[in-house]
Amino acid sequence: MKINTTRVNMVLKNEAIPADYLENEIGISRSVIEKVREDESEFKNLTLDVVAKIQKWIDDGNYTFSYDYSEFIEELEEDLAEGLIDDYLFVVRGDYDEALEKCPIIDYYYTSEEIEEGDLAEKTLTASVLAEMKKDNGIF
After folding, report:
1. DSSP state of 102
2. Which of 36, 46, 83, 134 matches a 20 to 30 Å C-alpha distance to 111?
3. What is the tens place of the pLDDT at every residue in 83-110?
4. H helices of the chain, where?
């Protein structure tokens, strides 16, 4: 099992998830969760057992990490409906996002001629770009 400490820490720190829910779902002590949330205990001091249980819970699909692509999706769908987009886009990605475990799309161009100096863009199927953004935008 690969442990993504960023993801595990985000789950622990997410106060929208009640500590008692995590206790019941994962089988870790509510007091451990509360101490991390209240900065009484540091994440680095958690046992491997606790961290592994949270990671397994994430891996089992109980928690997803998203990226807000709402505006990009809306713009892209409008341009598709108007027939302004070809089969391919030129995608610019940002820095690696530990929670997403990939580099998110931060910009895109419709043609290679539009690519600004200094931008590194990859030619990608428009349908694939839209599917990736919708998947990462979803909250389950």
Report:
1. B
2. 134
3. 989 899 999 999 999 999 999 999 999 9
4. 5-13, 19-26, 30-37, 48-57, 70-81, 126-137
Q: How far is CA 16 from CA 21, 95, 128, in A?
A: 10, 27, 32
Token pair, residue 72, equals 């990009």
* pTM of the complete model: 0.78
Cα–Cα distance, 1 to 56 (Å, whole number): 8
91, containing H or E segment: strand 88-93
Q: How far apart are CA 88 and CA 100, in angstroms?
A: 24
Parse the chain into domains and list their residue ranges.
Answer: 5-62, 70-137
* Residue 14, CA distances (Å) to 19, 33, 49, 87, 118 in order: 9, 10, 20, 39, 37
